[in-house]
Fold each of these.
Amino acid sequence: MRVQEKSTIKRIPIKDLPAFVDIIADAYPGMKISAPEEKKKTVARLKQAARDPLTDYYGLYRSHQLLGGMALYDFTMNYHSIDLPIPGVGLVAVDLLHKKEHVCKELIQFFHTFCRKKKVPMTALYPFRPDFYKKMGYGYGTKVNQYYFKPSDLPVRGFKEHVRYMEPGDHRAIKACYERFRTKHHGMFTERAMKWTFLFASSGRRVLVYQKEHIILGYLVYSFKKVQEANWIKNDIIVHEFIYETREALSGLLCFLHTQLDQIHRVVYATQDDNFHHMLHDPRDGTDTMFVPLAHQVNRQGVGIMYRVIDTGRLFTVLHQHDFGGMTCTIKMSVIDDFLPDNDGSIVIRFDRGIPEVLKTGKVDVEIRMDVADFSSLIMGVVGFQDLYLYGLIEISKPPYLDTLNRLFHSIAEPITTTQF
């Protein structure tokens, strides 16, 4: 039996970034960075991103050879008006010659241990395969809805008088608009400096702003895409980001999209807003697909961001000011975490009119037991306690406490995020 060489995981030095890009190009051919010129541009982007204090690159080495790497992001998330540190991991890539040699597993284990040492309670990622990361303890986030509607099906309630294209001096005002939006919406992340550079410099993308009384209250990032390669006139509008603080900003920017009806085939809009179809005169996506007995296809849905609790006790300590439904009770919570043994086990939490306190011991009213992936989705407000219990994904010692626990973990809003990483 071949003995696996010992791994070293460390920051990737600048001189090794080209090797990391080679690994990324092979691991994700869909990124189309295999050509020498594209690789050179990607290395330059990684170097630029590495100067951002929120971004770091780590690699796994064996015998001084880089076998895989990842990008770590030091995000902060709005958790019901509480700023919660939540590092993200992305660009996880493994040399094709070293697949099935536990490179990815060791990288993620290092990431979790690294975050626990920083006393961070949660992490997040976008999965290349949801089932793969669910086995590592990541729970599903809010689903993404991709709408595909005609511009003419948008309501005409707003006016374009406050809508204009972004100007060179707008970047700070747009960032300020985003940050105000972030502080009002559960799940929204702080953004890296590179995001704004890409937003303002990306070729093919246009940025519209809604400005009133010298304040930007919303913005829309879009591009065009041919519907048919042989027909250069027929195009869709792809909405890449849509932020709005007021109903007037929303209406004004939607008015812009509506007025494109004579040239644009359809608008492609991916959002975690599950209610957006209520705005449309005809929400159908043009496929004429129907489900039994009589349901018209409105949009496609997909699993995007996933969350993971890596320190259950620390999480409730950080959330000591969050009101968990105003409930008063003491629970023993057992979290099953096979991938991260340090987080596997039980804690006792006392809730006093919704405010949590982690106890070393004490008399408990009810005991609950669940997998860390399901707990991560529950604590983020993606799914309710009662649903998880119904699905057989939570066990409780006293079923009469089901209503109390459902109220305890009830979230007034599902998490949303526009951050890509």
Amino acid sequence: MRNSISSLAAKPVRARFYRAADCLLRVSVDDERVARLCERFIGDYCLAPVVDAPSGVTFISVEIKSPESRPAFPDGVAAREIVDGSYVVAGETIYLEIDDSLIVIGPRESAVIRVWIGETRRAVEPLSLATVLSYAINAAMRRRGRFELHAAGLVEPASGKGALIIGDSGSGKTTLTMRLASGGWRYLSDDRLLLGEDAEGIVAWGWRRAFSLTEETLEACAMARLNKALLAQAVNDPGKRHIEPRVVFPHSFISSCQPQALFFTKLVGEAESRVVKLSPSEAMTKLLRQCPWSCYDPATSSDHLRALARLTRQSRAYQLLAGRDLLREPERAAALLGTYLN
């Protein structure tokens, strides 16, 4: 059974409740320094603080602990490599090691994701801690049926239809989001979404709140209010700057949408951009590349894969070969993508 707010006993040094994608998350930390960094990380995401959480509401917890009570990394099980670390699977429990920190992710019905911060210098660096928090919080959200996707989300103003722009880092998602938002499109996020199911289909929620821009994108998207929107350098995106998009686009944020078009973007050196239709199977293959935990996490993989398959059935899918025109002509992105939504 998941935790209930009415069943809480002892309080750690710092515990906070947050709501995201119709789910309630509790984050507790027993170290003040880590707690401050945790709040900075959470501030970049669409995690709304909940001051007075109603009694009896179920939630899932991320508990971040100092290393004294850390369990051992399992022996006798082959470890698998993942970005920034390695993991082993024991039944439906995952042990994930990142820079000497350990994350224990329990079965689907588990109410708690437990994290032990390492004692090495690297383990307590902001980038490493941000990586650990990202893995832990996303694991918690998967256990509530909310699956992260490396994508931007927008809503076309004329039709009201949702579009996802999906791709690797550096594929142009943020630049396209800035261009489309400046053309009147509503936005969910420039880079991170959560997917979940309801009675009508797949819903996408904005996940990362702040936009993360390279210097090149900042120069290409020179806009009024952009300097006022600049935040600190991104903790988990070295070399990029965060902006508060609600300063640049004050009335354009929308919390969720039902996607009806998927654009898998890739930068090409051509003068003109091109759009190529994809089959559902081609779209599914590309989605799996952006969602490795649909295969890595045995407790949630079947639900995760079902959600991705349902997304490909409800949406038309395209390969967007992004050319120089999308940077050169501010209105080009809205005109091009809007064609496939109307």
